[in-house]
Amino acid sequence: MTQTLYPADEAAEAPAAADLLVREQLEAEARVAELAGELEAMGADLETEVTFDDEDAEGATSSHDRERVVALLASARRHLQDVREALARVDAGTYGVCERCGRPIPRERLEALPTARACVSCLDRNPLRRRS
Length: 132
Ligand SMILES: [Zn+2]
Prior knowledge:
By secondary structure, this protein is mainly α. The chain has four helices and no strands. It folds into two domains: 6-95, Four Helix Bundle (Hemerythrin (Met), subunit A), CATH 1.20.120.910; 96-132, no CATH class.
């Protein structure tokens, strides 16, 4: 759409990534808000459900669900943080550069994972951070 504005190859990439990340950030914010709301509703539910007199397994189910939402919320927050940091790197002009080896991260990797901060070969050298 606006690619003619950025004739240089490298310049063309950053705005596209920024667009993607801004959209991602909105989605991540919405997801965090949604999960936080869900958790709040569940928290309220749990407090009114402390009695375990009947055999109703609902109490156990909700606390299980609650754990699941807590985990989802944590990962949504982490993702939002990643997206924000990626946007900060776009601003700083360091987006798409591997933070370990300083080489450019391949475009396909950034398309698959816009928040990537290291290239695959650097991640492979650190099993702790290996993902997907
Ligand atoms: Zn690297």
